[in-house]
């Protein structure tokens, strides 16, 4: 996971710490930084920011005779990345669920994202997370568009032992979501997870449908589910969904197969919204909690 990004950053640290950093040399190195990071799926704007910040910190830097220049460069890089990965708010799903439970109302989460990016499997993994921590869950099969979507959710529901609220194919997805929330309220269920039809960010009708679901059930959280392997496309998709519906956070799937690693940095930098988890496999427990510290340890520490 993230092998290419880790190797690239290691090489950049080595390069920056072994060359004499004149103004001209720094300009050349900054261009090299941008190209190297872009090759790891770090969005151009994010790569340029990293390069510019490195240049500011290293320009005119006086390093003592016995000072470890390599550690200094790594320190600067870590500071820059931590600053980039700061978000508007921190989100702890279990903490919010606990608060809603005390208030005797369900936590309602709406999942959105393109088709084929692992949204349904991610919902099953989040269901498993809540169940393991003592919360009851109901799932809304509000994808009434894709053939097999309801059956796929029902299979997960049976394995996990949770109810799936469904209507017929072609039914109003907002009505399915509403029924699931009402069911949770009447039965004292703690969490409602709403699946939606996968859609392209350019599909106006499906985007309007998604906005309608949000209006009808007023979810506590709207979570974008994207595929880490799509690289910069994940960034563009997250931005479009944020503009359309106002996402609160993201989950990136297939992170175990993502050797480049730049998508995570790009999505957070562009949306200013946190990534909550990374999908790391096919089992219900293959869900890695994400944090800036965790990522930096993966990509900067040997």
Secondary structure layout:
Blueprint: H1 3-18, H2 23-38, H3 44-58, H4 69-84, H5 93-102, E1 107-112, H6 119-132, E2 137-142, H7 149-160, E3 163-165, H8 173-187, E4 191-196, H9 204-217, E5 221-227, H10 232-245, E6 249-253, H11 262-271, E7 275-279, E8 287-289, H12 292-300
Walkthrough of the structure:
The protein has an eight-stranded mixed sheet with strand order 3-2-4-1-5-6-7-8, with helices on both faces. It has twelve helices and eight strands. 44% of the residues are buried. It has two domains: 82 residues, Up-down Bundle (Four Helix Bundle (Hemerythrin (Met), subunit A)), CATH 1.20.120; 199 residues, 3-Layer(aba) Sandwich (Rossmann fold).
CATH architecture of the largest domain: 3-Layer(aba) Sandwich
Strand order of the largest sheet: 3-2-4-1-5-6-7-8
- SS-based class: alpha/beta
Largest sheet, in brief, is: 8 strands, mixed
Intertermini distance: 14 Å
Q: What is the helix content?
A: 40-55%
**CATH homology superfamily name of the largest domain:** P-loop containing nucleotide triphosphate hydrolases
> What does the average pLDDT come to?
87
Q: Provide the succession of SSEs.
A: HHHHHEHEHEHEHEHEHEEH
Beta-sheet strand percentage? 5-15%
Radius of gyration: 22 Å
Please indicate the count of domains. 2
Query: What is the number of beta strands?
Result: 8
**Number of helices, counting only DSSP H or I runs of 4 residues or more:** 12
CATH topology of the largest domain: Rossmann fold
Shape: elongated
User: Which runs of at least 5 residues are low in confidence (pLDDT < 50)?
Assistant: none
């Amino acid at each position: 996971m993230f092998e290419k990004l880790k190797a690239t950053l290691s090489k950049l640290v080595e390069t920056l710490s072994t060359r004499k950093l004149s103004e001209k040399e720094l300009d050349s190195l900054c261009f090299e930084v941008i190209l190297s990071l872009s090759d790891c799926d770090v969005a151009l704007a994010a790569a340029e920011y990293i390069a510019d910040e490195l240049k500011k910190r290293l320009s005119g830097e006086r390093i003592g005779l016995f000072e470890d220049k390599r550690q200094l460069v790594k320190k600067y890089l870590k500071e820059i990345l931590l600053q980039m990965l700061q978000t508007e708010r921190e989100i702890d799903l279990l903490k919010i669920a606990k608060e809603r439970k005390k208030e005797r109302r369900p936590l309602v989460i709406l999942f959105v994202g393109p088709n084929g990016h692992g949204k349904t499997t991610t919902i099953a993994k989040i269901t498993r997370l809540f169940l393991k921590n003592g919360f009851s869950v109901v799932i809304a099969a509000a994808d009434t568009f894709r053939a097999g979507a309801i059956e796929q959710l029902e299979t997960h529901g049976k394995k996990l032992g949770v109810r799936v609220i469904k209507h017929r194919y072609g039914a109003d997805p907002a009505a399915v979501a509403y029924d699931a929330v009402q069911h949770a309220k009447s039965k004292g269920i703690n969490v409602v997870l709403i699946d939606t039809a996968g859609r392209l960010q350019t599909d106006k009708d499906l985007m309007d449908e998604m906005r309608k679901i949000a209006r009808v059930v007023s979810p506590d959280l709207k979570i974008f589910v994207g595929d880490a392997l799509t690289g910069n496309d994940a960034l563009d998709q997250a931005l479009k969904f944020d503009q359309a519906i106002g996402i609160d956070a993201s989950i990136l799937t297939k992170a175990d197969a993502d050797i480049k690693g730049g998508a995570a940095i790009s999505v957070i930098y562009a949306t200013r919204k946190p990534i909550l988890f990374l999908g790391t496999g096919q089992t219900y427990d293959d869900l890695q909690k994400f944090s800036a510290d965790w990522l930096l340890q993966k990509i900067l520490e040997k």
